[in-house]
Amino acid sequence: MFATFACTPEALVLLTSALLFALGAAGLLLRRNPMAMLMSIELMLNAGNLVLVLAARANNFVGAQAGALIVLVLGAAEAVIGLALALALFRRRSLTDADEPQEVSG
Amino acid sequence: MIGLLPWAWLCTLPGLLLTALGRGQRPGLASLPGPLAIGLAGVAFLLGDHQPVLHRTAEWLPLVPDGAFSLRLDGLAAVMLCVVGFVSLCVYVYSLSYMRADPGQRRFFCLLDFFVAAMTLLVLAGNIAVLLAGWAGVGLASFLLIAFWRDREGTLGAGLQALAANAIGDAALLLACVLVPAGQGDLTTLAQIGPALLPGGFGPLAWLIVIAASAKSAQGLLYFWLPSAMAGPTPVSALIHAATMVAAGVYLLVRTAAVLALAPEVLHAVAWIGVVTAAFSALASLSQPNYKRGLAYSTCSQLGYMFAAVGFGAPFAALFHLLTHASFKALLFLCAGAVIHAAHGEEQLAKLGGLRRQLPQVMWLALIGSLALVGLPVLTAGAFSKDLILEAALHHDPALGWLLIGSVFLTGLYAGRLFFGVFGAGSSVPHREVHPPDALLLLPLWPLAAGAILLGWVGTPLAALLGTPQVVPVVSNLGLLASGLGIAGFVAAGLWQRARAGAARLPQFGVPWLGPVTGIGRSLASGFAGLHSGRLGLYVFTAVIGTAAILLFAVARAP
User: Fold this and answer.
1) What is the pLDDT of residues B470-516, one digit of tens each?
2) Which of B60, B159, B374, B459 has the highest Cβ tally under 10 A?
3) Of A29, A99, A105, the CB nearest to B544
């Protein structure tokens, strides 16, 4: 039964998306390097986008495509701010651990 | 045209952008039209035909409960808009002078703009999902503004306490959001959901709402963050931690009073939480060495009165007290700010005192605020709303009612202690030269003082407007008794102050068994602040687990 389910194109896309999302989440949890963490977030965003676009096709609902575009813009904005922060920190030290800067703590 | 009014929450965003981009010679001037427009939106609605205005986009995310963007402007929201607009306009003008010399004033006004936008969104929310967005936004703004002076000792810790306490409330509200069946999260019709659709009936939903409200309004065991929040600038204490944000919990309870009415045991618990917080905070205020912390405990206590009113089944009394309290407590805090400003940042009561001669105008304003807090009948607004709460309390549960009336005496005592401690004659501490407040600093105090005197008279028309017509009595026997107790406490504190005029220390009113109670609060506070470890992995892990759990729950209950 699983074999027949997995053969439909929708299911393949869904599985790919789930895999991508799991990879991204795992990367975000396990990696300490801020660059790698940013890339993992991008991976998760794109996994979500895949499902949105799939749903747009399957249900003939264009709104979901607009949603996917919004997610793209959001991802770009997030990358800009994240990279700027990472670079600003990187200039002061070789930053390999996102938990390292602890100057501002209560 | 009137259909655009629910978008009033966008009004402060132009000011935010202009200030953030560094436009304008004087930061803050660009922000002034925002709160003015918000207040006028409320007034415009109240002048109209009072038909609720509703905005609702389509269901975007059917899986997420009530995943639509919905705004609602009705009588209740319009009254709150007037409060938010009026108080924040006063605080903005005040901040123009108060924060003038601060190097971070641009950031200050940006954060204030963000707060007002989030608060207005909270007020205008049509369903739980949008409410949650505003709810989390004001919590974030509160944290950022408490920790505004980053390099001062203890500000960040205080901000983290607020953040942690707010997180409990946010989580409760998020769970409530998931508990409500899809598409039925409209705040005004929550009580009409079929009980079969809610797991466990209305009890769990009501509890979650009450927990969220207690965290925001610093009630019960979750009071601990509000006194610490006084580490922020005084205009912030006046706007966020006295008049508007902490009142959001009460607003939520008033909004969902119909749901609470369906869960009587929760309603009873709310009454208890309110009365106990009102009494204990009043006691705790008596032993505070810090001026602002004394006022903060007073805010906890007054919010307790509002909670109790909701618990006694009188949500209108709670809203009315919210309205008058916003005016007189903001006035008291801004007076405290003027005093602290004049005394070069000194906040310890022991080192303030005898300021009657140097700051006569501030003294009269603080007297108006204090008397409204105590409840001088007819002349001040506080008396009208407090009498309404006490009336409901005695009618509903005489034992709790008398406890609440007893707390009025404590209110008088702590109000008197703070007032005479700062302005009375009894300071033996030689004062450095006081630098007088300028006209801009004192200007916004007058409209607030006018509100503290006159707002009581709007009670009866307000009740009619909100669809719960009742006559707010000008004087009643009960009101006179309570006022008598309050004034007695006020005068007693003044006499004590005079008797001890030669002593170096202020009366502390040490209550021995209060120590353990505040001890619990302190350990809660440090425990919660410690939850914020700054470890990114931990945050991500919690977020992933929490999201997964809530999604699973939502999928499980999707039809």
Assistant:
1) 888 888 889 899 999 999 999 998 888 877 764 444 555 555 666 66
2) B374
3) A29
Q: What ipTM was assigned to the predicted interfaces of this complex?
A: 0.77
| pTM, two decimal places | 0.90
Q: List the beta bridge partners of residue B67.
A: B61
Interface contact B534-A99, CB threshold 8 A: yes
Q: Which amino acid is at B315?
A: P
Residue numbers in A near B535 (CB within 8 A): 99
B385 burial via Cβ count (<10 Å: 0-12, 13-18, 19+): buried
pLDDT mean over B280-303: 92
**What is the least distance, in Å, from the CA of A7 to any CA of chain B?**
24
Q: Mean of the pLDDT values across residues A53-67?
A: 85
HSE, side-chain direction, 13 A CA sphere, residue B534? 13
Distance between B272 CA and the closest CA of chain A, angstroms: 34
Q: Is A4 on the interface with B (CB under 8 A)?
A: no
Pick from B536, B538, B551 the residue to mutate for testing the A interface (most A CBs within 10 Å).
B536
Q: Is A47 on the interface with B (CB under 8 A)?
A: no
What percentage of chain A has pLDDT greater than the value 90? 39
Question: Does the distance separating the beta carbons of B536 and A99 come in below 8 Å?
Answer: yes
What confidence tens digit (pLDDT) does each residue in B251-275 have? 999 999 999 999 999 999 999 999 9
Q: Which residues of A touch B541 (CB under 8 A)?
A: 29
Angle between helices B264-285 and B514-531 (to 10 degrees): 110
- Neighbouring residues of B9: CB distance < 8 A, sequence distance ≥ 6: B38, B117, B118, B120, B121, B123, B124, B134
Q: B13-31: per-residue pLDDT in tens?
A: 999 999 988 877 788 888 9
DSSP B181: P
> In this structure, what are the phi and psi dihedrals at residue B186, rounded to the nearest 5 degrees?
-60, 130
